[in-house]
Amino acid sequence: MNLKKLATLFAATALFATPALAGEHAHGAAAGEHAHGDAAGAKLSKSDQAKARTVEITVTKAGFEPAEVRAKAGEPLKLVVTRKTEKTCATEIVMKSEGVNVPLPLDKPQTVFVKPAKPGTIRYACGMDMIAGKIVVE
To answer: How much of the chain, in percent, has pLDDT values that exceed 70?
Structure first.
């Protein structure tokens, strides 16, 4: 790969990782917490956040663990995502359908709220869309 192509790739990658372009962050959220809306893009209410089921997701050399999360339509989820390795491209979690793009600093849990609106599959992945997992909604 020549230097010009590498610079273009680097610039594109940096664009996706830019927090200002990464989506809506809830005002008043605690440091490291990001509240994101359901498929319609609305922010989760404090009531939904309070009753959300917590799911721990870890990023390891193998990828997102667990790689599959099960949920019911309308069930609010609190995903607590912690990157445990530097040897990964999963330095953020992205859910395009939910408008989520949250940086994952090493060893610092990040909270993402989602409320799947309907049955189906919600894909979560790294910013380069190479390492992925899914939320299976019943």
So the answer is: 70
